[in-house]
Amino acid sequence: MKMLTARYFVALAFFAAATVAFANPFKSKIITGTDSTLVITVPAEHFLKITDFTQDGGTDRGAVHVTLQDSENGGTTKVLTATRIDLSTGTNSQNFPEISNRVIIAGPATVRVPPITGATLFITYRKELNDSEGGGGGGVTPIPIFSPTPGVTPTPTATASPTP
Fold first, then answer.
1. What pLDDT, in 10s, does the model give residues 91-149?
2. Which of 25, 61, 126, 145 could serve as a FRET partner for 156 with CA atoms 20 to 30 Å apart?
3. What is the percentage of the chain residues whose pLDDT exceeds 90?
4. Nearest Cα to 59, choosing from 84, 88, 36?
C-alpha cells in the first residue's frame, strides 16, 4: 500500500509541476477613474491576447493604446475600444447592446489603458510565448516517434535468365 501511495504521489507531483511550468493564466484588471494608467510590456517573441474589455459609466470611451517598438513599424495607435455595458440610461438607452471584440498584439510593444473619468474599465488579457513560427501552428511541439523497424527494407527481386 505504501508503494502505491508513493507512486500516486510521484505522478501527482509531475502533473503539478507541469501545470505550474506551462500554465499561463489570464489576468483581469479593474481600472477606475482615479487609478493610474495600466501599462503592459510585451517582449519580443511574445504576444498579448485581450479577450474582454468593457466599460461601465463615463462619457468618454475607454481604449487600448499600443506603441510598437520595432524600427520598421514604430508608432502609437488605438487598437480596441471598450464595450459599454450600461446602455439603460442617458443618450445610450436607445442603442442596441454592443458586441465585444478581441485583439492579439505581437511584441515588442507597450500596451497602455488609461483611466476614464467617471468610468470603471475591466480588461482580461494573457501574455504568451510565440513558439509557432509561420502562423497557424498553434504552439504544437512535434513529438518524435522511434520505431525498432528500419526505415528501408530490402525487397528481393527475380531476374529473368534465358532458357536454352
1. 555 566 677 788 999 889 999 999 999 999 999 999 988 776 555 445 445 555 555 55
2. 145
3. 37
4. 84
CB 38 within 8 A of CB 123: yes
- Output the CA torsion 138→65→101→41 (10° steps): 30
DSSP E strand boundaries for the chain: 27-32, 38-42, 46-57, 63-68, 75-81, 83-84, 103-106, 109-113, 119-129
Dist. CA 30–CA 91, nearest whole Å: 25
Residues in the chain: 164
- Report yes or no: 81 and 61 within 8 Å, Cβ to Cβ: yes
Lowest mean pLDDT among 24-28, 78-82, 101-105, 113-117: 24-28
Grid cell, residue 160, equals: 529473368
Backbone angles phi, psi at 16, to 5 degrees: -65, -40
